[in-house]
Amino acid sequence: MIPQGTPVLRYILRGGAFDIRHCQRRWAQVHDVRFLATHQQPNKIVEKYREKLQEKAKSLRLKDVDELKVVYKDRIQAQTKSASIASPIPSSNPNTPYPPPPPPPQATQETQPTPIPKVAQDKSSPPPGIKLLSSFIDVPKTLELPQREIEYIWRLRHASDPRSLCAVIPQTTYSRIEATAKRHPQFILPLLREGQGAEIHFLQWTFPTSTTATVLFTHLAEFKLRGEFSQPHTTVTHHLDLAAPKGLVLLQGTVVDGRGMTVDEGKWLLMCLQKFYGGGEEKVERKKLLEQFSQGDGDFRVEKLLDEAEKIV
Q1: Within 13 Å and on the Cβ side, how many CA atoms surround 272?
Q2: Which residues contact 183 (CB under 8 A, 6 or more apart)?
Q3: Which of 24, 57, 83 is the last residue of a domain?
Q4: How confident is the model at residue 46 (pLDDT cuts 50, 70, 90)?
Q5: Nearest-CA neighbor of 272 among 300, 244, 307, 229?
Q6: Half-sphere exposure of 125 toward its Cβ, with a 13 Å CA cutoff?
Q7: Is 22 exposed, middle or buried (0-12, 13-18, 19+ CB in 10 A)?
Q8: What is the DSSP string of 270-313?
Q9: pTM beyond 0.70, yes or no
Q10: Which among 69, 242, 62, 213 is positioned nearest to 139, based on CA atoms?
Q11: Residue span of the structural domain in which 70 resides
Q12: Distance between CA 304 and CA 286 in Å, rounded?
């Protein structure tokens, strides 16, 4: 009887009703799989094929199946002996416990699983949207050419694209620009529009690979509205593959159609970029503006920025 007030499930789990493990041990049976698979009673086999055996005995002019068995006695014994296989299965005695499983083999240099190697990130692989120099020209063959021919080929390579920006920068000039860009990766530049005043544009430097440096130009109003989700209207990439062997940095850019910018306006922003970032120590005011903007200095004035931009010829 289940004590009054005791839930049935709890009573059973505590063993009040029965011990399920005892029932399992009591009714469990252990069968020799080899015996079930390969050994059948001979009488059943004879009964199953008696008709065919009788036909075989008749064809050999024998009296019956028993006489056929005597004739083929030696062959039957040989066949039975060759078919018998030693079984690794232990005794089928249900009272005999199963032996413990063998210990796992010790790991050796041959048996140890080979760890999956980590894929090393290729620092020269560009992110989506960034093209390497090899996508524009054959770099190994270009290295064999003199500087003048390289400049000519690079400009000719982009002459057919009306939205393209293209330039060849001496390596010494680019080194100054890059050093300043790493200290001041963000800045704003004005675009002077006749009769409309100045329009401010936000720029940001990135260094996606060891051989590329990219500048993204965005309308400042859009950047304030969308932040990192804003769409650049102009993208410029500096390719450094030829900097050391040839002393040249190849620049390639695109002014996106339909973003409110012309190619000439993109060229103006690019020229302002080079003047602010590559002006050298003698351009004290431009350097000061970069530092004030990067530090969030309250003394930064757009009026001073416009004054410096008007000096660029």
Answers
A1: 25
A2: 290, 294
A3: 83
A4: low
A5: 307
A6: 4
A7: exposed
A8: HHHHHHHHSS-TT-HHHHHHHHHHHHT-TT--HHHHHHHHHT--
A9: no
A10: 242
A11: 8-83
A12: 9
